[in-house]
Amino acid sequence: MKSFITLFLALVFSNTIFADTVSDKEKDALIKLYHATNGLQWKIKWDLSSSVSTWYGVTAENGKVVGLNLANNNLQGELPGAFYDLVNLVAVDLHKNNLKGQLSNTIHNLKELEVFDVSINQLSGTLPVSICELKKLKDLALFENKISGELPPEIGKLGSLETLSLFDNEIQGQLPVSLYKIRTLRVLLLNNNKMSGNLSSEVLNFSALENLSLFDNSFEGEIPKGLEKLHHLSEMNLSYNKFKGVVSKNLALLDALNMTMFDENGNPFLLQINTEKETTIVTQN
Question: How much is the pLDDT for 259?
Answer without folding.
Answer: 85
